[in-house]
Amino acid sequence: MVLKTDKVRKSVLISLTALFGxxxxxxxxxxxxxxxxxxxxxxxxxxxxxxxxxxxxxxIGSIVGRIIRPRPGLFPIFGIAExxxxxxxxxVFKGRWKIGLAVYVAMLAAYFIHPLGRTLPAWCLWDxxxxxxxxxxxxxxVRRALQDKTNPKxxxxxxxxxSFISIEETF
Length: 171
What we know:
Elements: H1 10-29, H2 42-49, H3 51-68, H4 81-93, H5 97-113, H6 115-119, H7 126-147, H8 152-170
């Protein structure tokens, strides 16, 4: 189910944004293998709701989750990456991959400009580099999937690719 935001009533979009935000908040509060289990819902927020509503849902969820389970030190600041990941998923899935690419470039530049980023070896981001490269092939795969939404063989690779790109941007 991919919402066409221009064809959906505003009340439905607001309700779904609140619902996704609540689910995101609960998943942020549950410790997981990674920082939290929000990794499950973050890409879906962008793909289903679109870039702006997905960003909003992830931002609400990120804030709520950190209120439920506060984090020590600077860890609350890292919550901003979750809405950006949902934004990138929405952009890539809506075919606006160039803007998603620009977000990736900005995030990588910020990482390498920061003093801590310069102390770590560049090879430790190998998975992020792969996701960055995959953005370039995403338009072809997503377009094919959205032409025939009833075919899971075409939709599954698009969902997996977009999710991988979105999640790698978050971490």
